[in-house]
Amino acid sequence: MDAHGNTHAGVGHVMRRRVLFRVLAALLILTYVTVAVTSFDFGRWNLAVAMAIAVVKASLVLMFFMHLKYDKPFNGLILVVSLALVALFIVIALDDTRHYQRNVIPGYAPEIKANTQ
Amino acid sequence: MSDHAHSPHLQHHFETPQQQFDAGKLGIWLFLATEILLFGGLFCAYAIYRANHPEIFVYAHQFLNKYWGGTNTVILLCSSLTMAWAVRAAQLGQRKLLVVLLSLTLLGAVGFLGIKYVEYKEKWEHGLLWGARFAPHVEGHGGEEPPLPKAAAPAPAPSASAPPGSFVVERSAIRPAPPGPAGTVIAAEEQEEHLEEAGIHRRPANVQIFFSIYFLMTGLHGIHVLVGMGAILWILVRSVRGDFGPEYFTPVDFVGLYWHLVDLIWIFLFPLLYLIH
Question: How far apart are CA B226 and CA B245, in angstroms?
Answer without folding.
Answer: 26
